[in-house]
Amino acid sequence: MTNVIDGNAVADGIRADLEDCVDTLDNAGVTPGLATVLVGDDPASETYVSMKQRDCEEVGMNGIHVELDGDAAPDELYDTIDDLNDDSSVHGYLVQDPVPDQIDYREVIRRIDPAKDVDGFHPENVGRLVAGDARFKPCTPHGVQKLLDAADVDPEGKDVTIVGRSRIVGKPLANLLMQKTDGGNATVTVCHSRTQDLAEKTRRADIVVAAVGAPELVDGSMLSEGTTVIDVGVNRVDADTDEQRSSSSQNSSSSDDTEKGYELVGDVEFDSAKEKASAITPVPGGVGPMTRAMLLYNTVKAASQQEDVDVSLP
Ligand SMILES: Nc1nc2c(c(=O)[nH]1)N[C@@H](CN(C=O)c1ccc(C(=O)N[C@@H](CCC(=O)O)C(=O)O)cc1)CN2
């Protein structure tokens, strides 16, 4: 039987543990503060930041949301960043990616105070991660490690193939999985758009992580029996019609999707991959909720560091 790893349940457990940390901080007179900054009106980004704000409320953190117009000048965003850097009630913040073309996201990241960079994207934090001394593990890679742990899959000694070399997922995840620590010690292959014979690299892996943003790129024919499959992609595609849906996957659209006009699919073709996998994450309900849970984790860690209050992080 394939283990379909329930990301919502694992994230719920982490949030429950973080509530204890929030209580500890509260007893010391500290409310962890997380700010989200959204530039423009990308619908998926709007969904993610509102979920992040709702998560804050649920665990008793202070959520602050700042929205700028899609045509905002870079200086307007830099002023917002300066204000958040100076605001002691904000322990962590992020600028939702992507940003509109007139803004250089790398420059944005460089301006964020590294101590408040709960995404872990600032060059200082990237350097610390690579050096094996992470201040904040980036949320999605950290979430993937926690999901593997929850599914009792130890990467030690395993061949891991990561499909995708993004700054947010592929690169930091490769670094974390190869480190000489618990949750690491894997042999990691990173594939990308110029990789030749991708299927050969995925077939030889014990663990495949698909993080490329290409709907259903990885299917069962590209996997060996017993592989653990982690699907990071959250892609919005046109909703199936009723006729298509009646003959399609158990992990696909509902009538809600038809109303919204899109459905969410991963980078993995779920049904055929599930036939081969020993464990697999679904989309939605796999890695996405973990990304959000680990953002709360980093915010609690930031508050604990800045306010000098010890907490026992999960
Ligand atoms: N500043 C950042 N920008 C972006 C990040 C990031 O970590 N920091 N990651 C992605 C998007 N992302 C986080 O912001 C994200 C993606 C998906 C989910 C999620 O909960 N997905 C749900 C489905 C949600 C839906 O209904 O659409 C799921 O998979 O079950 C949360 C966060 C890019 N930008």
Automatic annotation (TrEMBL):
Region called Disordered, residue ranges: 238-260
Binding site for NADP(+): G164, R165, S166, V234
Signal sequence, renumbered to the chain: none
Organism: Halococcus morrhuae DSM 1307
Job of this protein: Catalyzes the oxidation of 5,10-methylenetetrahydrofolate to 5,10-methenyltetrahydrofolate and then the hydrolysis of 5,10-methenyltetrahydrofolate to 10-formyltetrahydrofolate.
Cellular component terms (Gene Ontology): cytosol
Gene Ontology terms: biological process: L-histidine biosynthetic process; methionine biosynthetic process; purine nucleotide biosynthetic process; tetrahydrofolate interconversion
EC number, UniProt record: 1.5.1.5, 3.5.4.9
Boundaries of every Tetrahydrofolate dehydrogenase/cyclohydrolase NAD(P)-binding domain copy: 138-306
Family: Belongs to the tetrahydrofolate dehydrogenase/cyclohydrolase family.
Record Gene3D superfamilies: Leucine Dehydrogenase, chain A, domain 1, NAD(P)-binding Rossmann-like Domain
Composition-biased stretches (Low complexity): 246-255
Domain Tetrahydrofolate dehydrogenase/cyclohydrolase catalytic: 5-119
Listed InterPro entries: Aminoacid_DH-like_N_sf, NAD(P)-bd_dom_sf, THF_DH/CycHdrlase, THF_DH/CycHdrlase_cat_dom, THF_DH/CycHdrlase_NAD-bd_dom
Coiled coil location: none
GO MF, one example: methylenetetrahydrofolate dehydrogenase (NADP+) activity
Pfam family, one: THF_DHG_CYH
Subunit structure: Homodimer.
Protein name, entry field: Bifunctional protein FolD
Pathways involved: One-carbon metabolism; tetrahydrofolate interconversion
Keywords recorded for this protein, A-Z: Amino-acid biosynthesis, Histidine biosynthesis, Hydrolase, Methionine biosynthesis, Multifunctional enzyme, NADP, One-carbon metabolism, Oxidoreductase, Purine biosynthesis
Organismal lineage: Archaea, Methanobacteriati, Methanobacteriota, Stenosarchaea group, Halobacteria
Chemical reaction(s) catalysed: (6R)-5,10-methenyltetrahydrofolate + H2O = (6R)-10-formyltetrahydrofolate + H(+); (6R)-5,10-methylene-5,6,7,8-tetrahydrofolate + NADP(+) = (6R)-5,10-methenyltetrahydrofolate + NADPH
